[in-house]
Amino acid sequence: METVLVLDSAAVSTRGPRPDNQDSAVGGPLLVAIADGVGGNVGGAVASSLVATWLAPLAVGAPGDGAEDPVRVVASANERIRAAYTERPRLRTMATTLTAVHADAEGLVLLHIGDSRGYLLADGELRQVSTDHTLVQALIDAGSLTPAEAKVHPQRSAVYAALHGADDDVAALDVIRLDAHPGDRVMVCSDGLSDVVPADVIAGLLGTGSPAEAAATLRDAALAGPPTDNITVVVADVRSIEGPLPLRLCTVGAASELREETAEALEADWPGPVPIGLVQHRPH
User: Is the pLDDT confidence value at 183 over 50?
Assistant: First the structure.
């Protein structure tokens, strides 16, 4: 029987100092993902919840069984954002980041747009595997800004790419094959963690305990920061298995809290398969 890589994951999310939580995350044996909504009030929460819910079926599929291409699923979710705000103009400004790690028949692949982050911890070394789609990161890459200057730049939160229903959104999606092996650990998180907790502290805390313990410890470190935003962390151990997948799926943040608004945005008038039942999943 063929051996495949799976993700043994745990997720936590808290609104931090904000009045609501616009982050959504999903974790399962084949997918971990974080979506950080933008657009204000309910719009950002609906956008992140919609994308996380749309991706959730990938988390419990079977690698190599002809399951749908994750990029195509992201594109479909992006179309759903456009359909949702076309039907409900109050949602027109909604958008969301997305950082996901998907296990397929060949290993792990990162899908990324925006300023949420993906990390890989291997042999005790932490590596950021996503690149922020922000103005300050572009200036750093061009040599016009130092990382220290970026931390206090007045436009440090300006994101130049996100999922907001435009035709060219998915063209900006980074798709990167990861060199990951059993025993490694991956993390996806919102900037509520990465903007507050230094990379060396993240490296030390990410490698401790189980995925659930590490995720909780990192959340607590951000809360002690002090925090500036919603905080969402998904930690997963990379494992190899033979045989059937464990059927375990959790959602946290807006994806588990905003069920009514998400259900409206995923109504059956959408021409295609709608994973509407997934909005009922709760973390466990």
Answer: yes
